[in-house]
């Protein structure tokens, strides 16, 4: 019975690691073991082209407006770059699109394959030259843009396809300044002039966008402001189970709550969101980073998520998510303003929650959100005292060991007693090998006499596995741990150990634990007990260093506790 339970436990543990390993492979761009990866297409953008369609004016009734593609390849365009201490943003005067956003405090990092790393270690391959560059969100290669404009039932109004003129002014945040502004003015379209003012603030990953609408015509007009995020979905691998991180549109409001939409579901018109609400925001989510249009002031808005019509010269499908706001009717000569905030930055959970209700939900914890969120909260509190994420993980394991000390001690005592009575049980099995029913009864009698719980040794692993898997998602999703160093050669806890030292130490500690534990009665199972740590150790070669550090620390503390209990009970 004990051997069967132990086998079941190892099977559960093995499958958990296989699923984690498969997710990590997909996270690093490798195909899934369970389904083929989607083909990748390269999107090309003609110079001066605006991506995305213009939403048609709404009548205020529920329902998403149709999309009209507006080719503008002949329109003039000027790229204006604005720099702050944390953002370098490029704005296109064609419609006032934000077409590029660099994050200089977040750099790309090389991610060579395991094979390349092994060849480099033995001197058979020289490392490829690599210069880290800032992470880029909005960019032309992915048709990724933030767009705004006007629509109206009365006729054409200034849109993101309308050429605008930039007003002279500073383009860089100077020392001692807290903000810098960029002002763009459109010509009159349909008797309406649109002025966009972008406000960039020191230390902020948000851009304030003020729309000033002036009715310069002779008839009343009821303008509608649309805010939308556009990007192509052809570079995203989808369709596989256990996806490590989500890429695509997300919508939040008091009716829908939080809803992510896969690109393939949009293709099939499976967009299940409440289109009318009095609050909420839209976002484009990717690993570690996100963009979002935020309007926190209450006011009716219509949400949309849709696939845009194909454009000449552009490969790949483009998708848009956004909101439409209906403004008060403007008499001739009247004007009004509408304010919005564009977020483009890292998914720092504590900062996201301050920007808008529910915005922290863009951080993807996968299927274990219910465990990962409190686990990150605890890690964040510990990091506030310790200041190093590696030692924070060590402290987390120590706290868990202290919290579960009594339960673990009971389990280890049971395992130690099983090791002590192993010779007696082996003798009994040999004596009663032809009488299986009597042998089982005798074994249960020995367990009762020695106060041994046959499944007691399984409890520590069962209790650790949910935390282990939740920590995996936290490491994958937490941008604060991205490129976070620990000590010496561990310069990034979110990627694998470059020299595989931690996995080898973890493998050695696991083998030592097998030696400490009672042997399995079946010789085949006993061999498997020695093979499993080696197989798992190899699998851990591709896991994040922070995850391996967690398991290694857990092994070391478990060995210390088991060793003390064995000595107390006189078990060698």
Describe the fold and architecture.
α1 runs parallel beside α10 and α1 (2-27) packs parallel to α12 (523-539). With 572 residues, the chain is an alpha+beta fold. It is elongated. It contains 13 helices and 20 strands. A hairpin with a 3-residue loop joins β13 and β14. The strands form 4 sheets. The protein has a 9-stranded antiparallel beta sheet, with no helix packed on it. Pfam families: 60KD_IMP, YidC_periplas. It is found in: Cell inner membrane; Cell membrane. Keywords: Cell membrane, Chaperone, Membrane, Protein transport, Transmembrane, Transmembrane helix, Transport.
Itemize the secondary structure elements and their pairings.
Elements: H1 2-27, E1 54-55, E2 67-68, E3 79-83, E4 88-92, E5 97-107, H2 114-121, E6 134-136, E7 145-151, E8 165-166, E9 179-185, E10 192-201, E11 206-215, E12 224-232, E13 248-253, E14 257-260, H3 263-267, E15 276-277, E16 281-285, E17 289-294, E18 301-307, E19 318-326, E20 335-346, H4 349-355, H5 369-386, H6 389-403, H7 405-420, H8 422-431, H9 436-450, H10 459-477, H11 501-516, H12 523-539, H13 545-568
Antiparallel strand pairs: 1-2, 3-4, 4-5, 5-6, 7-12, 8-9, 9-10, 10-11, 11-20, 12-19, 13-14, 13-16, 15-18, 16-17, 17-20, 18-19
């Amino acid at each position: 019975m004990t051997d069967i339970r132990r086998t079941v436990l190892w099977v559960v543990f093995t499958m958990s690691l296989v699923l984690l390993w498969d997710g990590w492979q997909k996270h690093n761009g490798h195909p899934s073991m369970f389904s083929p990866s989607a083909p990748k297409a390269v999107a090309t953008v003609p110079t001066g082209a605006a991506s995305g369609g213009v939403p048609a004016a709404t009548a205020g009734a529920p329902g998403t407006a149709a999309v009209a593609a507006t080719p503008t390849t002949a329109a003039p365009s000027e790229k204006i770059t604005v720099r702050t201490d944390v953002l370098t943003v490029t704005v296109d005067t064609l419609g006032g699109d934000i077409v590029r956003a660099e994050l200089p405090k977040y750099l790309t990092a090389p991610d060579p394959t395991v094979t390349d790393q092994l060849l480099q270690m033995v001197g058979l391959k020289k490392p490829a030259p690599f210069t880290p560059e800032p992470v880029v969100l909005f960019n032309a290669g992915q048709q990724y843009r933030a767009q705004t404009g006007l629509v109206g039932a009365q006729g054409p109004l200034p849109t993101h396809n309308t050429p605008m003129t930039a007003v002279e002014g500073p383009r860089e945040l100077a020392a001692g300044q807290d903000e810098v502004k960029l002002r763009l003015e459109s010509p009159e379209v349909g008797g309406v002039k649109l002025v966009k003012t972008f406000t960039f603030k020191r230390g902020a990953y948000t851009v304030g966008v003020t729309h000033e609408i002036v009715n310069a015509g002779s008839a009343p007009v009821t303008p509608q402001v649309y805010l939308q995020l556009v990007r192509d979905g052809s570079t995203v691998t989808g369709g596989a189970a256990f996806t490590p991180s989500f890429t695509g549109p997300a919508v939040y409001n008091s009716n829908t709550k939080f809803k992510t939409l896969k690109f393939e579901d949009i293709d099939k018109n499976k967009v299940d969101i409440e289109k009318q609400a009095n609050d909420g925001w839209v976002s484009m989510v990717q690993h570690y980073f996100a963009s979002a249009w935020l309007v926190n002031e209450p006011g009716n808005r219509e949400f949309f998520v849709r696939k845009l019509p194909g454009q000449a010269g552009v490969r790949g499908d483009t998708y848009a998510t956004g909101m439409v706001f209906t403004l008060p009717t403007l008499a001739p000569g009247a004007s009004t303003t509408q304010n919005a905030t564009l977020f483009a930055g890292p998914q720092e959970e504590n900062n996201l929650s301050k920007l808008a209700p529910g915005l922290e939900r863009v951080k993807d914890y996968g299927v274990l959100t219910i465990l990962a969120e409190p686990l990150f909260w605890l890690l964040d509190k510990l990091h506030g005292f310790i200041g190093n994420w590696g030692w924070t993980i060590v402290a987390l394991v120590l706290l868990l060991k202290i919290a579960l000390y009594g339960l673990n001690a009971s389990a280890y005592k049971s395992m130690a007693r099983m090791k002590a009575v192993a010779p007696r049980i082996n003798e009994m099995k040999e004596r009663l090998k032809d009488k299986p029913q009597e042998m089982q009864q005798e074994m249960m009698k020995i367990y009762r006499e020695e106060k041994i719980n046959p499944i007691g040794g399984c409890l520590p692993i069962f209790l650790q596995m949910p935390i282990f898997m939740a920590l995996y998602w936290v490491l994958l999703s937490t941008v604060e741990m991205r490129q976070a160093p620990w000590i010496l050669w561990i310069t990034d806890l979110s990627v694998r150990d470059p020299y595989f030292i931690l996995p080898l130490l973890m493998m050695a500690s696991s083998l030592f634990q097998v030696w400490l534990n009672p042997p399995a009665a079946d010789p085949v199972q006993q061999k498997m007990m020695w093979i499993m740590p080696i197989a798992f150790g190899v699998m851990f070669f591709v896991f994040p260093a922070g995850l391996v550090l967690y398991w290694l620390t857990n092994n070391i503390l478990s060995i210390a506790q088991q060793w003390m209990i064995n000595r107390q009970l006189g078990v060698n």
